[in-house]
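#structure-requests
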Amino acid sequence: MQNPYHEFTKRLTLLINKNPRLITTTLSNIFTMRLIGNKTHGDLAEIAIAEFINQYMYDYRSTHVGKDLYRAKSHEEDITIKNELTEKEFPVSLKAYGKGPLQLSTDKMSGMFTLLSQHGKSISEKKTIEKIYSNQAFSSFHNVNILPLIYDEKTQLCNILVFNSEKARQSTYLIKKEIAGSGRKHPVYKFLDKAGNYICEVRYGGTDANALQRGLWTNTMRASSFFESVTGGWISYSHNEILVSLFSHALVCERDGHQDALSKIKENIESIRRIIK
């Protein structure tokens, strides 16, 4: 049976292919938020993508989970999406990252690293690799639905890249431990294919490790063959200076002003919806 998240990304790919303007506008607005703050775009991407789904993907409904529910989360999700035809609901984690290193799972209990440590410094036997992948500690490798919004600020190009975990699993030929060094405080286990190409890595996750030093990571540049582009490749985005001005004015006006502005924005969205139907 088709994984509901994979079905969603296929539908999203089709929508973007037919109406590239929709995602170009949305991503441009999201990355414009970096003009306000380096981390602002990440939080606003969550509500932006949820609204994108609600407005333009007619068979889906999305809800922003919100930071206040963080401790109650059963998955690493930022939004939940429901297919209104099948009634299936699934969590999605949004990642707004610059090109390069990408965290796929925080692995807060350090289960992955601990499991790998039990098998020594070099793991190459196919049966052992399969056993590792099948272990509960690696459940997040297969089950976390991550939608990464990747950008290159220097060239103003962006992409939505989805990691193909099944291809990564089938391609893993060697898992080797690398000790601390080269700017790393802690050791990592790197996953490589038969040709020695980088796939992903599991970082140390002890109590003295911060968020950047633990969990499952990959790299959108070094492991590009293990990603599928929802946007059909890299697309150009531009900063929307008017949006920044809108935010600054909205923060110092009253609710009536917000209501008037929202009415105008809804009119614009409705005109876009009529075009794509």
